[in-house]
Amino acid sequence: MEKISTPLTEMLGIKYPIIMAPMFLVSNADMLIAAINSGITGTVPALNYRTDKEFRAAIQQIRSAADGPIGINLIANKSNVRLKEQLDTCVELKVDYIITSLGSPRKIIEKCKPAGIKVFCDVVDIHYAKKVEELGADAVIAVNKEAGGHAGPTKAAELVPALVNACNIPVISAGGVGNGFQWKEKLDLGAVGISMGSPFIATTEAGVSQDYKQACVDYGSKDIVMTTKLSGTPCTVINTPYMKEIGTKQNWLESILNKNKTLKKFAKMLTFYKGMKMLEKAAFGATYKSVWCAGPSIEYVNSIRPVKEVVDQMVEEFASVGVKNQA
């Protein structure tokens, strides 16, 4: 299929308007290389690397194996004590764009603008979208109700058009896409592209355990639940027997701490740390206590296959229905 031209493909110089979404512990250099070589782009969370040396090596590995835009996801709130170091590295190595999550992107935008690095900001409502637009964001990522990981409260059918009407910068839709037909739907709503993550977990390039990948094949949208136990912020996970046992709500002590003005910041940091450790343990080796993060779009995952096959099928399905809002 020929290039699908939208403001996102023009901005990043890609063939198809798809961003492989940043996924904590899942995204890696091999996945980004495969994404770029398939005509899309990919993003990796800086927090997936324990040290700055490993982070730099990954960026250099991608650059040497693929000719296309590299995206980095930065957690902007105070729980990320390595933000300054990560941002400095992104600017020094001139990554192509940054996706900001969970916090004010002001400092990130101020540092990236002079370096020519694009900044896309996760948003869940008009209020925050207008704020980041005023700060100088290049696009907003509309995180809707069907997103994997930290999802928003609003359906894409409502959120995307609302942001398109309210903002003067491009809107990228995140959540609820597992095939080319749903991809087309998001563009028809006015989005310039999509950010898609969960279907890429079950790929050969993903560095997570086979059990995690197989869970994305075996479970479906009805098995996805929202939990606040991992980061303090609502997050989607697969409702395994272990999740059913521990529940999805914070316990009474966690809840009290998060409501206390003095202790709230420290409680959130502790919850985030504990939750990320739970995910890390489950991502690379299955146990009874496995916690696997994923979104409802795993409904359309039927097998474990290469990234290119996922993209090719998306494009084939998309081509069969066309699109109304090509640029």
Automatic annotation (TrEMBL):
Alphabetized GO MF terms: nitronate monooxygenase activity
Keywords recorded for this protein, A-Z: Flavoprotein, FMN, Monooxygenase, Oxidoreductase
CDD domains, alphabetized: NPD_like
Protein's UniProt keywords contain Flavoprotein: yes
Keyword presence, Flavoprotein: yes
InterPro entries associated with the record: Aldolase_TIM, NMO
Transmembrane segments: none
Pfam families listed in its UniProt record: NMO
Coiled-coil intervals: none
Family statement drawn from the similarity comment of this UniProt entry: Belongs to the nitronate monooxygenase family. NMO class I subfamily.
Protein name as it appears in the record: Nitronate monooxygenase
